[in-house]
Design goal:
The complex is a heterodimer of chains A (about 250) and B (about 425).
Chain A (H helix, E strand, L loop, with lengths): L29 H17 L9 H21 L19 H12 L9 H9 L2 H14 L6 H7 L12 H11 L4 H8 L4 H9 L28 H18 L1
Chain B lengths: L1 E6 L5 E6 L3 E7 L13 E8 L4 E3 L4 E3 L5 E4 L7 E6 L4 E14 L23 E17 L9 E4 L5 E5 L3 E6 L7 E5 L12 E6 L6 E6 L4 E5 L11 E3 L12 H5 L3 E4 L5 E5 L3 E6 L8 E4 L8 H6 L9 E3 L5 E5 L4 E6 L5 E5 L16 E2 L9 E2 L11 E4 L5 E6 L2 E6 L8
Parallel strand pairs in B: 27-28
Antiparallel strand pairs in B: 1-2, 2-3, 3-4, 5-6, 7-8, 8-9, 9-10, 11-12, 12-13, 13-14, 15-16, 16-17, 17-18, 19-20, 20-21, 21-22, 23-24, 24-25, 25-26, 29-30, 30-31
The chains are: A mainly alpha (about 250), B mainly beta (about 425).
């Protein structure tokens, strides 16, 4: 499916190297890149305007991209099936991620409400009003805006049952819950510049020096560190990516 | 923020719609021999509020008043008519001029008050006296409640009686005189919305054959439908699709293949489509691949992930034919727009900005450099301003006059030397 190792195109010499990355720069693995893209896509699906109906074309295209990534991950066998905990609440509309993203977006100046992830599916069915009110009541039930980190851990006990399409997201967040809080600090600082290489990797280009400059990546200012190879840790990284985006945007 | 631009059938009028629901119509000044350099300029003719923001109480959602599309009706009498649409409602507006008013009524005086009948000694016939030109715009029809999803295109049929409106999943056929009824002619909504993978992105009637129309999809395919075949045209007559290039495949392949605009040529023989990186000319007779493909900004191919992250990859650019179908035009980023000559295969990149275009100055071609030698005045890919995008462009139906919408500003460029079509 995805073709790797394609012909490389010429880049301007001026794009060579950020000064901070003199010397060795680990090129993040393809799996990591793919995971980043998956997480970015999931975030995009969630961060919709609540007042106006989200753009259906955009949502469909992002969803197709997510599906494509997931299919490939399944084929590759990198998709580890982690048993989901079920706390008995059968509602598909309550997700760990929902609350996290709801709260984080409320802390932002824009004040946009974030619909539940499952709202995405429901959006297609036109039941937005119902879901959005559910989501908003969930979000508003949280008292004071809290530190994002503590949110993650507090949500441990509100795991819900998931639909199959949402399983992927759940697995990411379940992995997160199994981690000790201590590592969170480290992980937050471990924002990597993989996005820069994401450009080149995911579009089939080989590049070892290109630092893609784009407006959207201005938030990623920390120097890259070598990312771990374990799947779990990379999942955790990617969650922090999401958090980083939300906190800084 | 200008959201749509459209010339009328003679090119005398140019309509623009904006995000605030307003429509501004420009009229071309008639050419006069006295001032040859002032001829052909467009000045504001009329401004009116077409759509207002609404609130859908059932879904608790706002309906934006942004004008998505304007289409002129062919002129049939002294009045001009146009259709304008936002996400949900299409309106037919009639634009009339009033430059005379009757004077000399028998029963009313100049201010309209009834006269004292005892003062009336003789009868007179009211006469029409000239007055300052007044342009009146009235809503004649409101086509509401036809769409559950967002309307992305409208197209007037060549029969001048019907028109179609397309949203993400359905296309409706309306009669211009009937507002309480419309026919659904295309419906691609799946039974289970979770199975939804493809949406309608644009549609247009054939310029000459009133039974043919085309619609494009987010997967990059075009479907030509014949309304004579069946009432519901879910089954296409022809499917135009180019097989994917395996060497360029990435996770973004589908997104960049999504067609943002489709336009029939004036001749009716070809279709022009715009996807994220290219414009393609399709021959109606050939379904397997386009006959011509032009790269608009291929230097963005390596930046797709960034463009995905900042949502620019979802920008919907329009495209346009010139009057003789020999040149095609489309917009890009950094306020650049591109024109491709189909005959000479030459292309040019121009910029629509205040700095680079003083009145009557000649536009200088721009160049985006991607590597290698960099000439003076070249712009590097990384310096492109992705917030300055030219999504909406229009070409005069017969002359070399183009209208370019750059966010809040409208630019009108004329080719003075070669005013006639080649």
């Amino acid at each position: 499916m995805f073709v790797r190792g394609l012909k490389r195109k010429c880049f301007d010499g001026e794009e060579d190297i950020e000064g901070t990355l003199a010397g060795i720069k680990a090129i993040p693995s393809y799996n990591l890149q793919r995971q980043s893209l998956l997480d970015m896509s999931l975030v995009k699906l969630q961060l919709c305007h609540m007042l106006v109906e989200p753009n259906l074309c955009r949502s469909v295209l992002i969803a197709n991209t997510v599906r494509q990534i997931q299919e490939e991950m399944t084929q590759d066998g990198t998709w580890q099936m982690i048993n989901t905990q079920s706390t008995g609440q059968a509602s598909l509309d309550r997700l760990v991620s929902t609350d996290i993203l709801c709260r984080s977006s409320r802390e932002q100046a824009e004040g946009k409400h974030v619909p539940g992830y499952s709202t995405f599916n429901k959006d297609f069915e036109g039941d937005q009003a119902q879901d959005s009110s559910e989501t908003m009541s969930t979000a508003s039930s949280v008292q004071a805006p809290r530190n994002l980190q503590s949110n993650v851990w507090e949500m441990e006990n509100t795991q819900e049952n998931k639909g199959n399409f949402q399983k992927s997201l759940d697995q990411i967040f379940e992995t997160l819950e199994n981690k000790s809080p201590n590592s969170v600090e480290d992980l937050f600082s471990e924002v990597d510049n993989s996005y820069y290489d994401l450009d080149t990797m995911l579009t089939g280009m080989m590049s070892n020096t290109k630092m893609g400059h784009c407006d959207g990546l201005e938030t990623f200012s920390s120097p890259a560190t070598a990312t771990s190879n374990s799947n779990c840790k990379s999942d955790l990284n990617e969650l922090d990516h999401i958090v980083e985006i939300l906190v800084e945007s | 923020i200008i959201s749509t631009v459209e010339f009328n059938h003679t090119g005398e009028l140019l309509a623009t719609g904006d995000k605030g629901g307003r429509v501004v119509i420009f009229q071309r000044e008639p050419e006069s021999k006295n001032e040859p350099y002032n001829q052909g300029e467009y000045n504001v003719y009329s401004t009116f509020q077409s759509h207002e923001p609404e609130f859908d109480y059932l879904k608790s959602l706002e309906i934006e008043e942004k004008i998505n599309k304007i289409k002129w009706l062919p002129q049939q009498n002294a009045a001009h008519s146009l259709l304008s649409t936002n996400d949900k409602t299409i309106k037919l507006w009639k634009i009339t001029e009033r430059d005379k008013r009757p004077e000399g009524y028998n029963l009313k005086d100049e201010e309209g008050k009834l006269k004292d009948l005892s003062t009336v000694t003789s009868l007179q016939v009211p006469v029409l006296k000239p007055m300052d030109l007044m342009v009146e715009v009235t809503p004649r029809r409101i086509f509401a409640n036809g769409h559950t999803y967002h309307v992305n295109s409208i197209s007037v049929n060549s029969d001048c009686e019907t028109y179609m409106s397309a949203d993400d999943l359905r296309i409706n056929l309306w009669h211009l005189a009937i507002t309480d009824r419309s026919f659904n002619i295309v419906d691609i909504k799946p039974a289970n919305m979770e199975d939804l993978t493809e949406v309608i992105t644009a549609s247009e009637f054939h310029p000459h054959h009133c039974n043919l129309f085309v619609y494009s999809s987010s997967k990059g395919s075009l479907r030509l439908c014949d309304m004579r075949a069946s009432a519901l045209c879910d089954k296409h007559s022809k499917l135009y699709e180019e097989p994917e290039d395996p060497s360029n495949r990435s996770f973004f392949s589908e997104i960049i293949s999504s067609v943002s605009d489709v336009k029939f040529s004036h001749s009716g023989r070809y279709m022009l489509t715009r996807d994220y990186l290219t414009v393609k000319v399709w021959d109606l007779n050939m379904e397997t691949k386009p006959v011509e493909t032009y790269q608009v900004h291929d230097y963005l191919r390596s930046k797709l992930c960034s463009l995905y992250e900042n949502d620019c990859i979802f920008d919907k650019f329009e495209c346009a034919w010139n009057g003789s179908d020999s040149v095609i035009m489309t917009g890009a980023y950094n306020n650049f727009f591109r024109m491709f000559d189909r005959n000479t295969k030459r292309d040019v990149t121009l910029e629509a900005s205040r700095e680079s275009s003083k009145p009557r100055a000649i536009l200088k071609p721009r160049r985006v450099c991607v590597g290698g030698k960099r000439r003076k005045d070249d712009i590097s890919v990384d310096s492109l301003d992705f917030t300055k995008k030219i999504l909406h462009t229009a070409w005069h139906p017969t002359e070399n006059i183009i209208a370019i919408a750059a966010t809040n500003n409208l630019y009108i460029f004329q080719d003075k030397v070669n005013s006639e079509m080649h």
